[in-house]
Amino acid sequence: MMQLNNFMADIYFGHLNKDIFHGFKDSKDDDRTRNFIEHYLEISQQYPPRQLEADGRVGSELLEKLKTIGFFGLNISSTYGGAGLSLRRYLKIVEVVATQSLALGFTSLAHLSIGVKGIVLFGNEQQKQKYLPKAASGEMIFSYALTEPKRGSDAKHIETTATLSDDGQYYILNGSKAYITNANYAQAMTVFAQMDPLRPGFMGSFIVETEWEGVKIGKDIPKMGLKASSTAAVHFKDVRVPKQNLLGSPGDGFKVAMTILNYGRLALGAASVGILNQAVEDMLKRSKNRVQFGRPIQNYELIQEKIVAARVNGSVVSAITAFTAAMLDKNPLAPVAIESSHCKLFGTTRAWNALYDAQQVAGGSGYLSTQPYEMRMRDFRVTTIFEGTTEIHSIYPALFVFRSLTKHVRKTHPGKIAQFRQLLKLLFRRSSWKMRFRHRRLNHAIRLARSLARRIRFLILIGLMIHGRKITEKQFFLRRITFLSFYLYGLLAMTARLSSKQKDGNDLSEELDILAYFMEEARSYQRHNGTMRASCMERLHKRVFRHLSSK
């Protein structure tokens, strides 16, 4: 059986890794995790979000307090002075941090989730010994420098260059980076640069200290939200980076960048869970206390609909984020591009909807700046843009599978006729992942998941046969596959979680109803979007846009 060595991609073609599925269990908070949360809340409550926003930065006193409780070393190994938390426990902390000041939270989260992650994952022992103890203590805060003025989502074609010096001891770094989080708080950065002008994508990732000659950090950029966080441009002019500060080998940079972003996207998924849960609490409290037409507005279906949507989405995003994190806890370099993309896309977009609904339930008072809603919306808005835009993540999982499948088939079946035959074999292959559970609703969920997997396989293979290389231009089609994949992943993660809880004898009545609700949403989407043919709206879109573009 063909396998692409990716949990979700393999499912599309009939193979479910049952070791991963059945090995997933809910992690329980331990005393250390709770202590970190308690200490963080105790400190953060001394610095109200409005005051941090008015100050426009996180002050040195507050940073020192966070360093004192070990907040810059949460998931750095204890070997190097960190707390050594598992990814799943770290993400539990992220959920809570997101409900306080996001600007403050992102200062440490950007450092841990992406800034120093390259050294943790790809650094050699010398690099780890030199930088991780300082990173864990907060003495050296890290940034992640990939985005450029002309290159956002198109990371493979960045323009910053790294050229080996004549004596072979340094890489000479030149170029500019844009919108770098923590730029003016950082003492070091993970910087990405092209290493061969004739080979776009042949990149390197470098540990660069901000005090080195030639590194210039601009002033913090005024922003819509996250005003206390530092976001600035960074310029490199003939910066001499010691050869030993290259992470991995020459050419590994793009792989390093994408692997790190898996972790950043998971952190955004966890932050979204925190926001979704907070929105549920806010809406329940407001709707109980607000009386209109002689009744609390909680009694009205259109208000209930908003609360239920946030609760269901929080449960789904929590499940897929935890499931993905469990894979990375087992193998930190696990290929989870599709899974982390789903966490980021559906976490941030659905949390944004919940923020909108929470403000709506609050009514006129929700529009006041004395209430927390507008600040939360301003702060959270950027999560649908950085770490890959909503639009990119709406097509990325489908593109990833198309490219992986094409590469595999061309490698194993030379010749177009042989490749076509292989695609036909894959199209009619039966799935090999039948499972039975004690509760019938879990069985129904798995049956629906298999149906979604078959539909995705059909769309992928027929799409390749019809469109060939032009498939990359069919973005509506790619988005339909991505959304079907999300529903598939959500069902699998929720079923795995509930199966594990069922064995422990927990009461699952609410969670089973949430699963049923999500199943209906998945069925509806499959019914209306599981076809090769463009929808009427998609066809009309092209016609209307032609009118607009011809003006």
Describe how the helices and strands are arranged:
Layout: H1 7-12, H2 18-23, H3 31-44, H4 49-55, H5 60-68, H6 87-97, H7 102-115, H8 117-122, H9 125-137, E1 142-145, E2 161-164, E3 170-181, E4 188-194, E5 203-209, E6 215-217, E7 231-242, E8 246-251, H10 253-289, E9 291-292, E10 295-296, H11 301-330, H12 337-362, H13 373-380, H14 390-412, H15 416-427, H16 440-467, H17 475-503, H18 509-529, H19 536-549
Parallel strand pairs: 1-4
Antiparallel strand pairs: 2-3, 3-7, 4-5, 5-8, 6-7, 9-10
Helix pairs in contact: 3-6, 6-10, 7-10, 10-11, 10-12, 11-12, 11-17, 11-18, 12-13, 12-14, 14-17, 15-16, 16-17, 16-18, 17-18
Plain-language structure description:
Helix 15 runs antiparallel to helix 16 (440-467). The mean pLDDT is 93. With 551 residues, the protein is of the alpha+beta class. The protein has helices spanning 7-12, 18-23, 31-44, 49-55, 60-68, 87-97, 102-115, 117-122, 125-137, 253-289, 301-330, 337-362, 373-380, 390-412, 416-427, 440-467, 475-503, 509-529, 536-549, and strands at 142-145, 161-164, 170-181, 188-194, 203-209, 215-217, 231-242, 246-251, 291-292, 295-296. The chain is built from 19 helices and ten strands. It has four domains: 19-137, Acyl-CoA dehydrogenase/oxidase, N-terminal domain (Butyryl-Coa Dehydrogenase, subunit A, domain 1); 142-253, Butyryl-CoA Dehydrogenase, subunit A, domain 2; 255-390, Butyryl-CoA Dehydrogenase, subunit A, domain 3; 416-549, Butyryl-CoA Dehydrogenase, subunit A, domain 3. The radius of gyration is 24 Å and the shape is globular. The strands form three sheets. The chain has a four-stranded mixed beta sheet with strand order 1-4-5-8. It has a four-stranded antiparallel beta sheet with strand order 2-3-7-6, with helices on one face. Strand 2 (161-164) and strand 3 (170-181) form a beta hairpin.
